[in-house]
Each structure stands twice: as structure tokens, then as C-alpha cells.
User: What shape does this take?
Amino acid sequence: MRKLNTYNIITYGCTFNQGDSLKIEKMLQDFGISKVNISNADILIINTCAVKLSTESKILDYISKLTQKYPSKFFIIAGCLPQIDIKINGKIKQMIENRGFILHPREIPQIIKLIFHSNNHSFQTYKQKSDIIPPFNIKSPITIIQISEGCNNNCSYCCTTISRGNLFSFSNKSIIKQIKFLISQGMKEFHITSQDLGNYNYNGIRLHNLLAEISQLKGDIHFRLGMINPDYIIEFYSQFLEIFNDKRFYRFLHIPIQSASNNVLKKMRRRYEIAEVESIFLKIKEYDQLFRIGTDIIVGFPNETEEDFDQTINFIKKWKPSILNISKYSVRPNTEAKKYHQLNSQVIKERSRKISKVFLKYSEILNKQWNGWKGDIFFNEYRENVQYPYMGRNLYYVPILCNKGTVGQSKKIKITGYLNHSLIGILL
Assistant: This one.
């Protein structure tokens, strides 16, 4: 009988995937399965991502190398990648044949049962909804709160709905109960996440209603909101912005626009026009000029013209998002955009380089604007063998590195400079 007493987990992808990994780890550790390094682990879990072709290739290559290097280990392949396409699923099954299984994201509550009954596991997709499992993180004061799973947006380029299914929102009571439990366990910072926070809808309770309930919780705690598509904020911006009157919510938002061309947005099946996005960006800045906004851009979407791309460049130059995630468009299986006319790869690369240069040019200016700032930051991370081992965040979720600090506590600092995309500070 195979020995299954230890594990290691490798995670790719978004905050939601990281939350899934924390849930998996908690279940294994509660069952008495210990975490060790890869070479000593009986079970290797690879929690995959499917958002980009380059990520897909990297993960499949990694699984192949691991299965060849460790022929006696037990493999669990989790996450989105095996779910988006039957051919990819088949490749993975072949690599782990007779020594593991594919774990559907909504099978996570059953992982212990599946591990110990894997010989009878038929790789079928389980339809039941995930239970809330508190993702306790023993090495950090930060944890992840998943409020919903799946997506109803159905963008033409995205395989999230294929892999995760339609939206399922967890009950507000179970979310509040989970956060209270984690506070009692010493957690200080909560990253509230889903495939799109704006999708949250539990029996008519929308995101702003849920956040208002969360703000009633007591304690020296901090909340970071995950990705929110523009259409929700456009509809509910007044109720939503009220949440930030509670300064335990970081004044930072990740609002992916993907393109500033209405023609491209329509082909993407995004449910807004760029003028509406500019309107909410303006309202956010009127609420607090320092409020930081990050966004995502897909360059080289099928049929994107030079004019379309220039509109995106001009938007970025105007609004100067603090974080800019640039993705070169790549075809994903079973999506509508796969059928569209694809652009030449060299055109896509050149557009990516051009928009990256725009970001680098103004990001240094944004860093310099913080020089001399004084205020509280919450130290949430310690890193070994680096020049500035302590990292904290201020109200605007700016990463600030210090020589000294105390993880899990807030301290007053002064910003004295910057290093790449982080600021440098000293304790006051």
C-alpha cells in the first residue's frame, strides 16, 4: 500500500487559486499529513492556472518533468488547467496514470476521501458546491477569504467559466463566521477574493452589502479587495465607495479594463464603455486623490487596430494606474475569441513593449511622489536574505520596505526613497 503521510504543493495563478491551496493545506494538515520539501513528499499537488497559453505550456512541462523525476510519488493536479479542454485533461491523465488523479476545484472538500480511495476515482467532474473551509495560514498574518466561485461574465477570450462554472456565492453568514474564526486565530489581514468580486450576489445581498457587514467586525484588522470588473462599480459606486470610510479597507482597487477601445470591448463582450470607466476613475480620485487603482490590459486582441491600441495607450497615459498587468493575447481553448481573426505575434509583442515603456516612464514619477510621506504601515511580511527584510503597506496598499519592523503590527514610518516597484522607509 502506498505511503501517503507527507505532501508538498506548488501553486500557480491568482489569489483565488492561492486561497484554494490554503484550503487544501489546512485539510491535509488537520488530517495529519505533514508538509515537507518536494523531494521528501509522498504527495505532490500542482494547483494549476489556465489564463495564458504561456502559463499552460510552463505548467504542462513542469508536470512532465516532475512525473519523470519522481516515478514513485502520488500526484494531484488541481486548479483550472485540466478543466478547460479535453485534450489537456487527457495529456495530464496520461502523465499521472495509475499514480494520482485530477482534482476539480469544487472537489476540494473531498480531497482526503479522494486520496485514500484514488484507485476507484474515475476522474468525473463533481457538481456539488464547495464548502467554506477556513484557509488558515500559519506562516503569515495574511489569509484569503473567498466570497464566491465561478463567473457569469462570459467574456469572449476567457476560460474561467469553462473551468470554474457559473457563479456560486457563499452565504454572507458563513463568510462572516469564517472571518471571525480567523481573527480569533490571530489573522490580521484579509484578502477578499473571487473570480470577480462584483459578481457577488447571495439572495440579493450584493458586494457592498457584504462589505458593510464585514466592516461591523471589531479589531485591528485590514482588508484588501480583489479584482472587481468595472460594470459593478459603475452601477453601485456611491454605496461601494462608502466602504472606504472604514480605513481598515486599503484604498486600492484592481479594476481590469482590458482595453480602452469600445470596439475591442464589444468584441471581448465586456459590459461597459470606456467613458463609463473614466467616470468611475474620476469619482474614485475625487473621493481620495491618493486612492490607488491597478488595471489589466490585453494587447493584440483579435482585430485590434492601431487606432484601438492608441486609445488604450492614451488612457494609460491619462490615468496612470499604479499597477499595470499587461498580457499579450493568446488563444484559449473553447472560447469565442478563438474563432476571430488573430493578429501577427510580432505585432502583439511590439504593442506589449510599447505599453510597457509607457508604464515604466511614469511609474518612477509615481514612486517619487511618495518621498517624505509619514504615516502608519502594517507590517505583513518578513523575507530572509534581502537588504530590506520587512515589508508593510500603508492605507493605499503601497509596498514599503524597511530594515526593521514587526510582522503583524502597525508602525509609523517615513518614506526615504524607492527601489524598483517598492518604496523604502525608516521607523519613526
User: Anything to note?
Assistant: The chain has twelve helices and 20 strands. Residues 119-130 have pLDDT under 50 and may be disordered.
